[in-house]
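Exercise 7. Predict the joint structure of the components listed below.
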Amino acid sequence: AQSVTQLDSHVSVSEGTPVLLRCNYSSSYSPSLFWYVQHPNKGLQLLLKYTSAATLVKGINGFEAEFKKSETSFHLTKPSAHMSDAAEYFCVVSPNNDMRFGAGTRLTVKP
Amino acid sequence: DADVTQTPRNRITKTGKRIMLECSQTKGHDRMYWYRQDPGLGLRLIYYSFDVKDINKGEISDGYSVSRQAQAKFSLSLESAIPNQTALYFCATSVVRGGRSDTQYFGPGTRLTVL
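Solution:
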């Protein structure tokens, strides 16, 4: 069975400081992994994805994530938070054709 | 993403009523999905369809049914709505790469309230 766990339901950072959103997954197959962002009252937008190519994946808006098979992790990072990064972030695992979402991490950015 | 549209955007209904949520896409994707979003639970897959003749149950299909009328249209029905079906519902489409579902494109969501 496949599942994904987002280790923090809420993360709060100050503007200009680094962001770390943690995601662990379990999968019987070699999975595809995604991060999506949802701004308030909006649909979801793809930030980045891992599909068995490079383990360090760069996405939009300065975000990146590293696939670590030994740790079954796919943490999302950004060197410097911006106010516009405040949103909910979802880690998604797709081992085959199903899609499993994590519960989400709400990122708050303080001025 | 304007390429995936959902109607209605908001709906309030009563327990026992039949409700249909509609999704249309202009992206030309074969694969379409219906999810519900509840606070603290992320998105959970209700049904998905790989083409007009291929419909599959997702994680939480009980109480729901779907119809894939055409490649571009995928409808979700609640035959007899109940209050715990109050949620935000999203439709999505996806491309296929290497035989797998790849990036998903989401509609704006339908907020459904069942009284």
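Discussion. Chain B touches chain A through 27 residues (CB under 8 Å).
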